[in-house]
């Protein structure tokens, strides 16, 4: 009956989906980049160094991202 | 004529689907897009790793490499996924 309430609700739900989608894209990108850096010929399991590399790579990538944001922000001041 | 309205109980607003219905459709489209993206990525990565010298057919070694590669890639996705979700500050 109240279509403006529906619109607001839809807006909210879409924002949530957008956040989820962005997170998904980040995971996909990260996996792709870190796979290239860390994985040699695929075996029947990861070596401990491959596992460590993948985990480190993901964290360092996120830190790099944050660092770059700060850098750009300080350039604008 | 309006079959949507006849199969849904919220008769009041017959031309607008509910927010939930819209979101469900959005989620379906997104899931499809992700599945396709994942497939393409895994295919390209594993071809690169496992088929270094394409010959007249896929050897047994190449096939098993590809299978292992798919498994490992899914495992890698889990590792990076955990890193991302652990880095999100906890929400109220």
Automatic annotation (TrEMBL), chain A:
The keyword Signal does not apply. Transmembrane segments: none annotated. It is found in: Mitochondrion inner membrane. It is a peripheral membrane protein. GO terms for biological process: protein transport. Keywords: Chaperone, Disulfide bond, Membrane, Mitochondrion, Mitochondrion inner membrane, Protein transport, Translocation, Transport. GO terms for cellular component: mitochondrial inner membrane. Residues 13-73 form the Tim10-like domain. It holds the Pfam family zf-Tim10_DDP. Its main location: mitochondrion. Belongs to the small Tim family. Heterohexamer. The twin CX3C motif contains 4 conserved Cys residues that form 2 disulfide bonds in the mitochondrial intermembrane space. Mitochondrial intermembrane chaperone that participates in the import and insertion of some multi-pass transmembrane proteins into the mitochondrial inner membrane. Also required for the transfer of beta-barrel precursors from the TOM complex to the sorting and assembly machinery (SAM complex) of the outer membrane. Acts as a chaperone-like protein that protects the hydrophobic precursors from aggregation and guide them through the mitochondrial intermembrane space. This is Mitochondrial import inner membrane translocase subunit. It comes from Ceratopteris richardii (Triangle waterfern).
TrEMBL record, chain B:
Its main location: mitochondrion. The keyword Protein transport applies. It is found in: Mitochondrion inner membrane; Mitochondrion intermembrane space. One of its GO terms (biological process) is protein transport. Residues 1-20 are annotated as: Disordered. Pfam families: zf-Tim10_DDP (PF02953). GO terms for molecular function: metal ion binding. Residues 25-83 form the Tim10-like domain. It is a peripheral membrane protein. InterPro entries: Tim10-like, Tim10-like_dom_sf. Keywords: Chaperone, Disulfide bond, Membrane, Metal-binding, Mitochondrion, Mitochondrion inner membrane, Protein transport, Translocation, Transport, Zinc. The keyword Metal-binding applies. Residues 1-18 have a biased composition (Polar residues). GO terms for cellular component: mitochondrial inner membrane; mitochondrial intermembrane space chaperone complex. PANTHER family: MITOCHONDRIAL IMPORT INNER MEMBRANE TRANSLOCASE SUBUNIT TIM10. Belongs to the small Tim family. Heterohexamer; composed of 3 copies of TIM8 and 3 copies of TIM13, named soluble 70 kDa complex. Associates with the TIM22 complex, whose core is composed of TIM22. The twin CX3C motif contains 4 conserved Cys residues that form 2 disulfide bonds in the mitochondrial intermembrane space. Mitochondrial intermembrane chaperone that participates in the import and insertion of some multi-pass transmembrane proteins into the mitochondrial inner membrane. Also required for the transfer of beta-barrel precursors from the TOM complex to the sorting and assembly machinery (SAM complex) of the outer membrane. Acts as a chaperone-like protein that protects the hydrophobic precursors from aggregation and guide them through the mitochondrial intermembrane space. This is Mitochondrial import inner membrane translocase subunit. It comes from Ceratopteris richardii (Triangle waterfern).
